[in-house]
Amino acid sequence: MKKIYITRNFYSTLVVTLLVCNMALAHDGKTHENQLVDTLQAVTTDAVVNATKKSVWGENYFPNSTLITQDGERVKFFDDLIKDKVVAINFIFTSCVDSCPLETARMKEVGEILGDRVGKDIFFYSISIDPETDTPAVLKAYKEKFKIGSNWKFLTGDKADIINIRKKLGLYLEYLQTGEEEDLENHNLNLIIGNQSTGRWMKSSPFENSYILASQLGDWLHNWKTVTAAKNSYAEAPQLRQLDPGEKLFRTRCSSCHKFGEEGVGPDLLAVTENRDHVWLKRWLKEPDKMLAEKDPLAVNLFNQYKISMPNMRLSAQDVDDIITYMALETKRLRL
Ligand code: HEC
């Protein structure tokens, strides 16, 4: 079977499409603070042509606040974290059970695709939006739970400084408009990736395909100059073919935490459809949070083992059936 490579042309088209979508989204409810992202998106197409131009979003724009890493090291946001670097930054809080584990697992997958470039020419930062709870020790424990390597920094700091950084990155939008207290569970989910020196920044959904995110970070933001040294090449990206609905759902919602035949952030799912009672499994996929809250013995057992709660993915009954069918078929396929 032929492999499909992501070619530069294909990719340029994709970038432009993403930019157009992002701009369209950004147009309603624009605020002073989120103009950075808007404007940067508008100049990005120019930047593709004229990438060597120095960014105006430099030290005069970004704060140089002190943040503290999971190891207690003090770092300056501009000087130490983003200056002249290609970065991926997201905002999390460790007590979040819904979307953050998903985001973290997805970023971990992107990191695995990029291999040893993370920490060398691509930098990953997760900044807590709940710094009172998320002390360096709490962040360190969180990192360990996800088995995340040393090259990705988790950061905490002064709450006002962190809000300011989010505003400057255009990731603190709705609260500016309503003036309401922030609801942590609904914090802005966007991940931002960028190259500080060229001024190319782009908001990206953490639910984006990991191979596309990796390609944006590894090639596009490096102006296509860097030869990819990642141990997992994009050429190994899953082949593009017609996926059945269960497989499609699995790839977008589950694969950053689960694999077949090996452990991931969550348990190995090979043969799970045979090892678990069908009714239990159906309910588990529908509402794992409720089952844990009700102290279902198996749910409690699994949680004690993995320490990360599986998010409620708001699947419909049809989604659940499709995914169960896929898990059974994938188990069979791998046994052939
Ligand atoms: C953020 C990571 C994450 C995501 C995303 C996720 N899971 Fe899980 N899953 C876990 C963890 C962790 C456990 C172990 C139980 C716990 O700690 O809550 C688990 C447990 C399970 C189990 C039970 C395994 C067993 O041995 O009985 C199944 C089945 C499962 N997940 C399927 C899925 C499916 C299907 C999806 C996608 C719709 C999914 N998970 C999405 C993390 C995740």
SSE arrangement:
Layout: H1 8-26, H2 35-49, E1 66-69, E2 74-76, H3 77-82, E3 86-92, H4 99-114, E4 123-128, H5 136-145, E5 152-157, H6 159-168, H7 174-178, E6 191-195, E7 200-204, H8 210-218, H9 245-254, H10 272-275, H11 278-286, H12 288-293, H13 297-306, H14 317-335
Parallel strand pairs: 3-4, 4-5
Antiparallel strand pairs: 1-2, 1-5, 3-6, 6-7
Helix pairs in contact: 1-2, 4-8, 9-14, 11-14
Bound molecules: heme C.
Question: What structural keywords apply?
Answer:
single chain; 336 residues; alpha/beta; Glutaredoxin; Cytochrome Bc1 Complex, Chain D, domain 2; 2 domains; seven-stranded mixed β-sheet; 14 helices; 44% helix; 11% strand; binds heme C
Structure description:
By secondary structure, the chain is α/β, with parallel strands linked by helices. It has two domains: 228 residues, Glutaredoxin (3-Layer(aba) Sandwich), CATH 3.40.30; 91 residues, Cytochrome Bc1 Complex, Chain D, domain 2 (Orthogonal Bundle). Helices cover 44% and strands 11% of the residues. It contains 14 helices and seven strands. It has a seven-stranded mixed β-sheet with strand order 2-1-5-4-3-6-7. Helix 1 packs antiparallel against helix 2. The chain is globular. Heme C binds next to helix 4, helix 9, helix 11 and helix 13.
